[in-house]
Amino acid sequence: MISILLRGRTLSFLRWPETIDDHSAWRYEDDGGLLIRDGRIVAAGAYAEVEKQAGQGVKKIDHRPHLLLPGFIDAHVHFPQMQVIASHGAELLDWLNTYTFPEETKFRNAQHGRRIARLFLDEMVRHGTTTVAAYCSVHKASAEAFFAESHHRNMLNIAGKVMMDRNAPEGVLDTPQSGYDDTKALIEEWHGKGRQLYAITPRFAITSSPEQLEMAGTLCREHPDLHMQTHLSENHAEIAFTRELYPQLRDYTDVYEHYGLLGKKSLLGHCIHLSEREADAISDAGSIAVFCPTSNLFLGSGLFDYQRHRRRDKALRIAAATDVGGGTNYSMLRTMDEGYKVIALNGEKLNPFQSFWQLTRGNAEALSVLEKVGTLDQDTDADIVVLDARATPAMRLRMETIETLAEELFLLQTLGDDRAVREVYVAGRAAKSDMAT
Ligand SMILES: [Zn+2]
Fold first, then answer.
1. 390 Cα to the center of ligand 1, angstroms
2. How far apart are alpha carbons 107 and 104 in whole angstroms?
3. Is residue 336 pLDDT above 80, yes or no?
4. How far is the CA of 346 from the centre of ligand 1 (A)?
5. Over the stretch 194-208, which tens digit does the pLDDT of each residue have?
6. Based on the number of CB atoms within 10 Å of its own CB, is 223 exposed (0-12), middle (13-18) or buried (19 or more)?
7. Which of 144, 250, 270, 305 has the fewest CB neighbours in a 10 Å radius?
8. Whether the Cβ atoms of residue 27 and residue 34 lie closer than 8 Å to each other
């Protein structure tokens, strides 16, 4: 039995923080301890108390003065797009056709998929992200590569092969039947293996025929415990094209409703230009709107109205995500920095506790994985990020004038990136320093 005892300033959320002074929304220990046994947190609290339970032979690691938080969660990312990120000058549909689809054809080659899966999860760990909901390419081998690498690292990840059978080049198309069969085989092989979770992944309405969405709906009915992930209402040209493809349905959201794809584990990337009817339908279904600020700004898609969605009578469940390669950074700190600005452009502010809630517990709730990750609670998996608010000269200088935890978190969000991530534990294993050696 491997036991380690971490010491540092621990921060974990109990619920959404209404204000910056809503202290009962989080648990902060200035001298905190986390006792980890076989990859799980078995005790958490004040260091002096936790140490008493540690027993003989426990390995002690002192991270003071750094912050220990639950590992970050990225609710929407495309692992095959590592060589698409930073592609210039296009909006969504041109960006897909010019850069993304040609790049994803390379994942026919299983070896390419394995290489990128390894580099992708390295990058996640370097940035403090311990769980992602990932899109693979259309090729079954890309999902196999992703899950094999994720399983090898013992990471809790959600992923699926995209289903797409039209409006894209031959090299990235499946058929309704092959998309169904490959998905079925991948679920069989990977869902629930170790910490791996499968997501049924029709890319979006434009690249799936009605027959394929029918098949995706069948998969959701056959596997009601699985996630479903897709894109919704990102860009005006996309919405218009979808309306042309599905003229008999009420609106874009109705496409997914009609085929039985909206449920409590449905992750809907973007949701920028929703009508009130669509937002109501998503809320009624308990589905999740995924906010991808760097992507939405980069592709010029629009401003996600976070606070309005959260506050409306029929509130939306919200997750936050990078959406790499439309997104421009792997870091969830950078993501929430841009998220702050998007929300500011809508005339509101997100306070730093709300941001860090979103990155951790909020995203865990949205992904229905809260019983395993997203907090530092006892009896959860030990996925932990260690943050250093003095990681760079500019941060160090700014920290001289910072007095509160809220200010420190806001500095981490505003100037922080992978350099602020000192260590990352994946199921109790020091994954970032392991990687460096
Ligand atoms: Zn996406």
1. 33
2. 6
3. yes
4. 22
5. 999 999 999 999 999
6. middle
7. 250
8. no
- Span 198-222, average pLDDT: 98
Taking the centre of ligand 1 as the mean of its atom positions, its distance from the CA of residue 290, in whole angstroms, is 10
DSSP strand pairing (266-270 vs 26-37): unpaired
Ligand 1 centroid to 126 CA: how many Å?
Answer: 21
What does the pLDDT look like over 123-139, one tens digit per residue?
999 999 999 999 999 99
Measured torsion, CA atoms of residues 409, 386, 148, 219, in degrees rounded to the nearest 10: -30
C-alpha 357 – ligand 1 centre gap (Å) = 22
Residue 78 CA to ligand 1 center (angstroms) comes to 6
User: What is the C-alpha R_g of the chain?
Assistant: 21
User: Residue 202 is inside which H or E element, if any?
Assistant: strand 197-202
What residues contact 161, with CB distance under 8 A and at least 6 apart? 136, 137, 138, 139, 140, 142, 143, 179, 182, 183, 186, 201
Per-residue DSSP letter, 187: H
pLDDT at position 1 is 65
Answer for the pair 69, 104: CB distance below 8 angstroms, yes or no.
Answer: no
CA of residue 81 to ligand 1 center, whole Å: 10
Please tell me the distance between residue 292's alpha carbon and the centre of ligand 1 in angstroms: 8
Write out the two tokens for 423. 């260590």
All structural domains of the chain, each given as residue ranges with its CATH number in brackets, are: 3-70+377-430 (2.30.40.10), 72-330 (3.20.20.140)
Question: Most distant CA pair in the chain: distance in Å?
Answer: 68
Distance 431 CA to ligand 1 centre (A): 26
C-alpha 135 to ligand 1 mean position (Å): 8
Q: How far is the CA of 109 from the centre of ligand 1 (A)?
A: 22
Q: Using alpha carbons, list the distances in angstroms from residue 416 to 17, 145, 333, 394.
A: 22, 31, 6, 10
pLDDT band at 381 (very low <50, low <70, confident <90, very high): very high
